[in-house]
Write a structure and sequence with these properties.
A hairpin with a 2-residue loop joins strand 1 and strand 2. The chain is mainly α. Helix content is about 55%, strand content about 5%.
């Protein structure tokens, strides 16, 4: 289910948003407010804790597979389209990428939140590699998309993955998690954790993410908790 399809629980969303900004999370208990400090969960720390840096290192040490050669020769617009197709897959909105996959919403989604640029910057600036990590990921996603549906191009987008339907994109990730071979572990890890990274970036955006999760910011208590423990 796309993460933009339903609002995240208020407290969970508050924790994520506050952690991303380094603020404190405020709770209400028995009519009194107290705060629990949350250390700043930066993009670099998120990547370290989820193992993206280690996975990128494994991919960089592999022999020269076809998808690495494709990544080296990929054009920037192809990379951008692929990442946009991924962002729309995780948090759909009213944008063209979401509508192309057949799963979209009227509310602003990941594209409106600047998720594509945030994803590219996060992976390529915090995990430097040659070729850039997002180009490698784009090549992998597009190769799997072509195997799944060889007729997917030509289409509205040059990137095969961006042209897939929502369920086809889900199948691409399922196939990546089921791969065998020397690169299987790293690819399976990326497939399992990329959605979480995209969601983290999108829901950390104050303009869109806070609205989708109904997070109103740090406060001395929440209306829904007032009087909760009263008889």
């Amino acid at each position: 289910m796309p993460l933009g399809g339903a609002a995240a629980p208020a407290e969970a969303a508050a924790t994520v948003a506050a952690a991303a900004s380094g603020a404190s999370v405020i709770f209400m208990r028995t009519g009194a407010a107290y705060s629990r400090p949350v250390s700043a969960l930066t993009r670099r720390r998120f990547l370290e804790r989820t193992g993206f840096i280690a996975a990128a290192g494994v991919l960089a040490q592999l022999s020269d597979p076809a998808w690495v050669r494709a990544a080296i020769s990929a054009r920037p617009d192809l990379n951008h389209q692929t990442m946009s197709g991924l962002v729309a897959f995780i948090v759909p909105g009213p944008d063209g990428y979401s509508k192309k996959q057949g799963e979209w919403t009227k509310a602003p989604g990941g594209i409106a939140a600047g998720g594509t640029k945030a994803l590219i910057d996060t992976l390529d600036l915090f995990i430097p590699s040659t070729p850039p990590l997002t180009m490698t990921i784009a090549a992998i996603l597009n190769a799997q998309a072509m195997q799944l549906d060889p007729g997917i191009v030509p289409g509205p987008y040059e990137a095969p993955f961006a042209n897939l339907a929502f369920q086809q994109k889900a199948e691409v990730f399922r196939r990546l998690e089921a791969l065998d071979g020397p690169e299987a572990g790293a690819l399976s890890f990326l497939a399992g954790n990329l959605p979480g990274l995209v969601a983290f970036l999108v829901y950390s955006d104050p303009r869109v993410g806070y609205k989708l999760s109904r997070y109103s910011g740090v406060a001395d208590g929440r209306r829904e908790f007032k009087g909760y423990f009263h008889a």
